[in-house]
Amino acid sequence: MTNLSHPFRKKWGQNFLRDPNTITKIVNCLQPRQSDNILEIGPGDGALTRHLSNQSKQIHAVEIDPLLITQLEKNNYPNVTIHKRDILEWDLNQLKGEVKIIGNLPYYISSPILFKLLAWQNWERMILMFQKELAQRIVSNHGNKSYGRISVMCQVYCEVKIEFIVSKNVFHPKPDVDSAVLTFYPKDKELPEFNNFSNLVKQAFSQRRKKLKNNLPEAYKSGKIEKWANSRPEEISPNGFIQIYNLIFVG
Ligand code: SAH
Q: How far, in Å, from the CA of 144 to the mean position of ligand 1?
């Protein structure tokens, strides 16, 4: 375990990986090839970056903390472009062609980052680390307490699975909770238009305990969702939501 020479910024969700085995396991999940273009979110001081640099063609690393950027730049990796930006404001369309995405995500904005990546869609694989509780919500099945909007959005657009749990003890500084590494593959079948579907799911879950006829009053009044009127959002599977979308938007 080495200590870093810069102050930790709690506000930026900084927990740095310090265990070589965990780092290798995460990078292996990405299955990097020499022809790959990779987006790394929040490289920090480069725990993952140095491995990725040896195993891929080009890495775009987006990092917000100027002190970490200075440190990263000292490494002079020939194939790493460092973008000094907030990932939530960064235009993903700067990346040309398909990319793989990797990141030990800053926990305070993990969900908005994930939604941004889902909406963008132009990736072939993502390996992302989340706090364990959020990871469990992402993969949760309908009927469970932890099933919600983020589960539906991830499971409709991706094949998603928990690869392994990462103990809080392998980070510095040590976070309060364990983490989990998830892999995402895009589904290649025809899927609902993202923005309309996303708004629909958001509205359907606006009041978890209420029935769909209350959460989607307009669709209900128009007679389109009768079959689902008395279901609660948490009881409806990802495929059920696709059916509801088709009833409302496709007819
Ligand atoms: N990948 C490193 C660091 C992970 S900690 C490791 O595993 O050791 C999360 C990283 O995300 C930190 O470096 C933090 O500064 C960065 N970060 C936080 N908010 C960000 C934002 N909005 N945009 C880009 N990077 C951000």
A: 31
